[in-house]
Amino acid sequence: MSRPDAAIALATDTPIPRDADGPVFAEPWQAMVFALVVQLQERGVFTADEWAQALGAEIREAVAKGGCRDGSDYYERWCEALEHLLIAKGLTSHDGIDGLAASWARAAEATPHGKPILIENDPLTS
């Protein structure tokens, strides 16, 4: 499946916030996580069925815990599903994800205002 076909299938087969033109992203990071999931599926890291199961589980858990029922937290569920799926496949760990998040936070703190945040800006990695 080509990239446009995979993205269209993913956008069609999931309850992504959308308008008449397709998926709607309120923030750039939402489009990035969408694209990342498409890429990982195309590369065979996980199947569409595995993704649907992981995302569905995250949405059900969030709703059960009183999460947003209006879909405003939809892409947060994508991030959670992606993290848990990659951990389940042994491609990362909770510690690995937490460490990378901490590194990005330090990089953001060390980056001058108006400059792009780069992981290389983490003062603990230099």
Amino-to-carboxy terminus distance: 40 Å
Sheet with the most strands: spatial strand order: 1-2
Give the tally of β-strands.
2
**What is the helix content?**
55-70%
Rg (CA only): 16 Å
Total number of helical segments?
5
What structural class results from the helix and strand content? Answer: mainly alpha
Total number of domains = 2
What is the 3D form? globular
Low-confidence parts, pLDDT < 50 over ≥5 residues? none
Strand content: under 5%
Order of helices and strands: HEEHHHH
Sheet of most strands: 2 strands, antiparallel
Instruction: Report the average pLDDT across residues.
Output: 85
Describe this structure in words.
With 126 residues, the chain is mainly α. The chain folds into two domains: 3-92; 93-126, no CATH class. The protein has five helices and two strands; from the N terminus they run H-E-E-H-H-H-H. The chain has helices at 3-13, 28-42, 48-64, 74-88, 94-110, and strands spanning 18-19, 22-23. The protein has a two-stranded antiparallel ribbon with strand order 1-2. Helix 2 (28-42) runs parallel beside helix 4 (74-88). It is globular and about 40 Å long. It starts with a helix and ends in a 16-residue tail after the last helix.
